[in-house]
Amino acid sequence: MIIAGAGAYGLSTLQTKEYAASASLLFRNPGFAEDLFGTNATASTPTDASREAATNEKLVGLAVVGVRAARQIPGLNAKQVSEMVSVSSEGEAEVVKVTAMGPDPAQAQEVANTFARQFISFRAETDRSKLEEAKKLAEHQYEKLSHSQQKGVRGQALSRGAEKLGLLASLQTGNAELVQPAELPTSPSSPKPVRNGIIGALLGLIIGLGLAFLFERLSHRLRDAEEVADLFELPVLATVPESKAIMETNTGGSAPQLPFVENESFMMLRASLRYFNVDREVRSVLVTSYSAGVGKSTVSWNLARVAATSSNVVLIETDLRNPSLGSQHGLRMGPGLAAFLTHQASLDEAIQSKSISAGNNGAEPSGRSLDVIVAGAAPPNPAELLESHTMRNLIEDLRERYDLIVVDTAPIGVVSDPFPLLREVDGVVAVTRLGLSTRDHAERLRDQLRQLHAPVLGVVVNAVKIGRRTRYGYGYDAGYYGRPPADQRSRTAVTANEAADDS
Question: Whole domain around residue 124: which residue ranges?
């Protein structure tokens, strides 16, 4: 809309200014013929008003009128005059408007008035020549009569007729009058930048809306959290903002920290899982997605991290084909889960500890740690290992040692490796990413989880713009969009500690 409106306005200002001057012609019969003969000797066959108006327009616009007008205007030829002049009816059969447009207002006025007057002169001369021919015919007929016949009735009629025709010819006006001469225009009639800008903006708006609806129809990517909730028919447990800070924490270090808003997203996820269902204890959570690159492992890591600030938590990386937690968070690559499942390492050897903090900028390390079991070296048979009794026994053993088990899996729409684990955990969390995940992927993931009877708890929506987090997470409080005051951070910490005590 802005481009079209500004473009139309800019182009209009660059155009040459044109001035319009209009003269009005009135077509009417003065009635001289009726007075002299008792009938209109020059009138044509009566027509309806619309046809008469069209006839008058054509008569005024005859090329011969332009030629006559050009002879009276210095510096212009007949073609230039014709290009400057336009003829239109004003809605009545009797009135025709002659409009001349040009860059010089005085010239436009002169052309309009000259053209109108030359039309009147042309019509008058045409009617006069017709009457003079009739007069000559009457005189010729009179001269052919004998002297006695000239004094007779017929001769007297021819004599009086010739006299009246001569008088009528001298009174001819062409049945047209210049009732409104053209005035000197004071402002250009074109271009009109403001009007053109408004029209351009409206057209741009219409085109823009059309393109937006077209792209929306053609694009199947998820746009907002409400759409995700509707597709999955599940609650949105948390919305994670689109943030570079989250990605920067995936570079290792002893105490990765997140800004307040980003960290609160994962605290909200942890709180949602804790209080999701009072009738069911959620001790193990599997985090999955349909495709890669949606932030599934990031959600798994940060969920485990915030939970570890108040509980004993272990994070298991079960993506044996494409592991990433070790390289992202400064952990050793092995021995890991694959080595344990193939009996090459004990459980204690596979478990690593990572010191963590609450995650807010400026927060001191909490003194607690997160236990992690990385995937380790890629085995030739990952699906068989994850479906083995050893894997099921591992989850049972970890239940005895930890308050919460977070399982990070491979994308469920890419490989079937996670299928055996879906029934071994207390809850499943699906992760989608706005702008990347599609409606088709969301529907397929939903259908797969239903067919496998997975205990799905809800959805985490990743890469949500801060301004759009209005119905999920902490979007209802504008204070959470920036760094809160110290007293507010203290209240948040107290609330989190109280929730941990209740747990």
Answer: 18-190
